[in-house]
Specification:
Blueprint (H helix, E strand, L loop, with lengths): L32 E3 L5 E3 L10 E2 L4 E2 L7 H5 L5 H13 L10
Antiparallel strand pairs: 1-2, 3-4
């Protein structure tokens, strides 16, 4: 990967398609949450797998100030971000597998 910084203004927000497990202390509005079959509290996703809190018109988080801790710890243009984006670009598709790790 090049050493150039990622252009966050042109980001496809790929990370917003990953399952987000909510932790105690997360203060996410209930309408944006769901419960898995295993009873885990998670961010809800739409039919296409996107986090329901994303503002699709602006490709930004609509609950940025109250986003979950895991989202707060995800550094834009950090190593995880760059790896996820590289994998996404290698696939050449507008989708990534949605799996719970």
């Amino acid at each position: 990967m090049s050493g150039e910084p990622a252009d966050c203004g042109r980001c496809d927000a790929v990370c917003c398609r990953f399952p987000v497990l909510l932790q105690p202390g997360d203060d996410v509005p209930r309408r944006f949450t769901d419960v898995t079959d295993a009873g885990l509290a998670v961010m809800a996703r739409d039919e296409e797998g996107w986090c329901v809190a994303i503002d699709a018109a602006r490709m930004r988080c609509s609950i940025y100030d109250s986003r979950p801790d895991v989202c707060r710890r995800f550094a834009m243009d950090g190593p995880d971000c760059r790896e996820i984006r590289a994998d996404y670009n290698r696939r050449g598709a507008r989708g990534i597998p949605l799996v719970m790790y």
